[in-house]
Amino acid sequence: MYRKIVKKIKGSKTGYFWARILHFRKDEDFREYVRGFQGPDVLMIKHFGLLYPEDFVYYIDIHDMVGFFAMMQFTLEYLSYAEKFHFIPVINWKGVYAEKELVNNTDNVFEYYYCPVSEISKKDVPNCKNVIFSCHGQRLAFSVEGSENLTYKGREEIYLKYGVLYKKYCKLNEKTQDYIDENRNMILGGKKTLGVHIRGTDFKQGYNVHPVRIVPGDFVEPIKKVMGKCGYEQIFLATDSLEAITLFQKEFGDRLVFYQDVQRSDGNIGVQYSEGKRKNHHYLLGLEVLRDVYTLSACDSLVSGLSNVSSAARYIKAANGFEYREVVTLDHGLNVK
Predict the structure, then answer these.
(1) Pair 294, 316: CB distance under 8 Å
(2) Taking a C-beta distance cutoff of 8 angstroms, is the pair 318, 163 a contact?
(3) What is the pairing mode between strands 45-46 and 131-133?
(4) Chain-wide mean pLDDT for the chain?
(5) Looking at the 3D structure of the chain, how many domains does it have?
(6) CA pair distance 133, 120, nearest whole angstrom
(7) How far apart are CA 159 and CA 81, in angstroms?
(8) Predicted TM-score (pTM) of this structure
């Protein structure tokens, strides 16, 4: 009877799986091994096909419903992990910027804007010999290396580190590069410019462990102070807040420049979650925030709160081999609930 039960269990993959779990549940080596999965220390390698048999393909698949430069930060952290172990990265983004139809001949949101990061394409992955799928624990393994979190408390060496990764892997495709160059040159016009970033909309909700919102009015005096001592000719404002635009137009008049075709709101829902009637609305949302960041990175100094956008401006500037003359960061701490 016992042998029949054992044979029946072994004949069922599910039954045999749970039987082995029960059998080894108190074995500490087994428990440690299980705890390692979905972390940085134990990797599962899938053997799908015969392509690239000498390489380990690292498939960075990001589909979090977050903003553009949150996805970029996740990507850079995964790329840091890939660099450590000499994996070949393949990046695929989905999320809030994805369109139902192809954009620039791809359904990969990353490649809406950037060139592929390796010769191995997303379509190749199901036929590769050795494939490792990214998971949350891996991106945290080398993302901070003892420092505070990059997004909200990054140190200068962290921006430099991410600048190196960004320069190596994140090359704008020709269409995106031309669009950004044309717009950036037009709005900055070769003038000495102070870049300002103000985060509004969903920051009003006070998300846990996100920065405490800084109202637009709190930026006015720090900006005037920097403008007065450095002799800037204009202010470039990147913001999702209509309130900030209205206030700054009143305070700074024709010294203020900003992109007028950007989705903005006075509500408390992030513009990345908005729906619009224009064609490829979600793609354009990504393109517009990318343009804002590249324009901020071309400014001479930066005044901002804590955000993914202001962090990105700093590491992209570092990627191009430059640094700001002055950085003023308004910091009211993080929300703790």
Answers:
(1) yes
(2) yes
(3) antiparallel
(4) 86
(5) 3
(6) 14
(7) 16
(8) 0.86
Residue 113 structure tokens:
């804007």
Q: Do 226 and 96 fall into the same domain?
A: no
* Whether 208 contacts 337, CB under 8 Å: yes
| Residue range 318-324: mean pLDDT, rounded | 94
Confidence of residue 118 (pLDDT cuts 50, 70, 90): very high
Distance CA 237, CA 248 (A): 9
Domain end among 89, 109, 143: 143
Residues 6+ apart with CB under 8 A from 335: 206, 207, 208, 209, 210, 211, 212
Q: Compute φ and ψ for 128, nearest 5 degrees.
A: -85, 155
Report pLDDT digits (tens) over 46-77: 999 999 999 999 999 999 889 999 999 999 99
Are 82 and 58 in contact, with CB atoms under 8 Å apart? yes
Task: Answer yes or no: is 159 within a domain.
Answer: no
Residues spanned by the domain of 281: 166-329
121 touches 294 (CB < 8 A): no
Cα–Cα dist 240/97, whole Å: 16
Task: Give residue-wise pLDDT tens across range 175-230.
Answer: 999 999 999 999 999 999 999 999 866 554 555 556 777 888 899 999 999 998 88
> Do both 186 and 271 map to the same domain?
yes
Retrieve residue 2's tokens.
Answer: 């016992």
Question: Looking at the predicted structure, is the pLDDT value of residue 146 above 50?
Answer: no
Q: Are 215 and 244 in contact (CB under 8 A)?
A: no
Structure confidence by residue, pLDDT tens digits, 283-299: 999 999 999 999 999 99
* Whether residues 7 and 51 fall in one domain: no
